[in-house]
Protein 1
Amino acid sequence: MAKGWYERSELPQSLNSALANVQRTVAAAANAYGSAKVENANLVQGVSKTTTANKAIGSALTACIEVLEQSWLDRSRISGKQSQEDLDQSDLNTLMSFTALKHIRDVLEGTATEFDPATLPAPIVKPTAPSSEVAKVEQVPQQSSIQQPPSYKPDAIRDVPPKNGPSLPMSLPEYARYGRQMILPDFGLPGQLRLRASKVLVVGAGGLGCPAIQYLAAAGVGQISILDHDVVEPSNLARQILHSDATVGQPKANSAADAARRINPYITAIPLVEAISAHNARQHMRGQDLVLDCTDNPLTRYLISDAAVLEGVQVVSGAAQGYDGQLVVLHKRIKAEFAAPKARGDGEARGPCYRCLFPQAPRPDEVTNCEDGGVLGGVTGLVGTMQALEAVKILARIGEDTPPMLTLLSPLTGMPFRCVKIRPRRVASCRACGDPAQVAEPMIRDLESEDYVSFCGLTPTPAEKEGPRTQAAAMQPALIVDVRPEIEFGIAKLDGSINVPIQTLLRNPAQAWKRIHEAQPAAGVKEVLVVCKKGNDSRVAVRELLRVKAEGEAAPVDPLQEAKGARGEVRPVKISDLVGGLRAYSRERDPGFPVY
Ligand SMILES: [Zn+2]
């Protein structure tokens, strides 16, 4: 903090010329103000002259601030203060008063859009002994990790007025805690107070949610609600950095909320242990200033976007898959000039929602999530952190106004970061955020009557189409066909199993069956057991193999009913898949089999 201020003392302008500047600008302000009063009878001229007068007063204020700053810095130097550690509470109050004065100046000069009473100078208070501040932090009551109802009370510390001065907008330790970001240009005390008053909903406390929550909490976002129904598993720990071995088995929402409070006891973290659904999405978003979508499947992305549009909330949406990531702000408040021509003049200008960007859901076979497709911790870390940064920009109102952009992260390429402008809102066709007068289809008004499952092509297969299934506990000797990707087969496999990756199998099921059929005699067993990681892909595989049978594509001799045994005789074949996959196998048959 001190460095920037001491550098100001290197300005060539002497105190004398600063004082002369005060004399000149105050005189000009007095003239302009007098002139504005005389002309007030004419409204247009009066407004114009008042603006001129305000700017003149602003200039006078600038001149006064410079004198005060220089005097203060001179005194600090004389008393030997060279680093931040040398500053006492009185110095800190002086710095904050300068910030407030500059904000008043900006309002007068028209460069700040609003006046925030919280920027009024704080009274000078006596320095507080550091030990008492530490003690105060330690007295913060620990929140229990149970799920909190919506009427959750904020941390006690935020209700207690600071002891040293009733008009201080924050407690003294908070001034010290947030000092580095508060002295940034355009951030200041107003930016910090906006963050402190903000309420944010983070959906998903996984790879993206953890880094996002971490930086939101540290920056002092006042209330962070964390919605997640999952529990912490060992396979989360390589990237979901708020969880630990000690919280394996606990709800992720609780684990993340506890971690957020450890990072910053001056914020409120609310764990919500439930899955987001059409039933609860709007309720959880109501009253929030911002939503962070940290989930990893298309269905929840559409649901979160639709609910946010209905509640008028912006969504900072992150995605990470494999080595790649992306970031976009949905339903973003934008300047009218960035809006689609057709959208101008129909109320507040907004960027596109998720449906505007993706009117059709991807087919399920085009989608993989982190669990099935893999993901690198650094990638989720970067995207989650970028989400937090974007959230802080929006909440503290810093940074440039830009048209809606998509940020793409591809760390393995020569251009790891790219930013592309995205299409404007589909005013004439989007069922969520379009103009009801122009959209032909019925608008989305009630989430519970929307069929998200069918829209995303996730309709469950009717039971009668399923192939036979085998429980891990009832496994018999069989030829084991492992349909996981080759790279996973290389991590751990069952003895004697063969690898036919699901993608290969789906591309040419008949060819896949031929390979299985040829391996059968060598295995010398009657049954074929298809396995995968969790028991989903293996069901699809068995279904496809049965379809091959029905179409008679596999071989002249029906391979699913008959196969040649090791001695050449024809034997019946049973084909089934392992319920729960290799995870169930590890749990129920062989705890020594690695789970990843
Ligand atoms: Zn839309």
Protein 2
Amino acid sequence: MIEQHHLYLEDTYRFTVTTAVVDAGDAGDGPWLALAENVFHPQGGGQPADTGTVDGVPVRPYKATGTGAPPGARAAHVVRLGHPGDRNFAPGELVTAAVDRTARLRHAALHTCGHVVDGFVRQAGYRHRVSNHFPGQARIEFDAGDGPRPDLARLAAEVEERTRQAIDAGLRVGAEQRDGRRLVTVAGLPADPCGGTHVTSLDRLTGFALRSVKVKGGVLKVGYRVEHKAGHMAGQKED
Ligand SMILES: [Zn+2]
């Protein structure tokens, strides 16, 4: 397996890098390549993949072990090339990779806010099942339990209020490596293993609201919306 450095894990606000191609090929259904300094987040953990370009060619990031990845890739993360035209990429050459900023920040906002909503619903006594952080569909599902039907209006009001307070307080988002795993701490809630992209503090979120809170088939579904503040779309730090 070829070593790569994953920039997206260290800095959500790093959008471009000039780096070397470390592996490349064509599995018959289109060319792909892997970068030494990988700036692209692949789909995973309920979060969509980044979009972006390599030397201007549209790319789609994948985990090399995941669905849709090309066979024979020797790096952990690869990108498939959209329409390379006559552009050929070979190991060793330097390229410039660029992440689509709008999508990156939207995904990071939804994903980070998902941790907060998830944490407060868990603190209310529900066990996490699955997360979906896709724009327009962001939703976290929990076991509703066998007991009496929960007071959903009360639960929604409590989770919404606590999440708003955490955002207003601008609580920090932390990440650390422990025992080979990346642990992420948001809003003082218990640390969770996570490989996604996050905002650095919750005051970068805006427009938060719960979309729906309902129980169906023993599953509590909590839908929400949130966006990243526009001031950071250009990647400029305001603070
Ligand atoms: Zn996360």
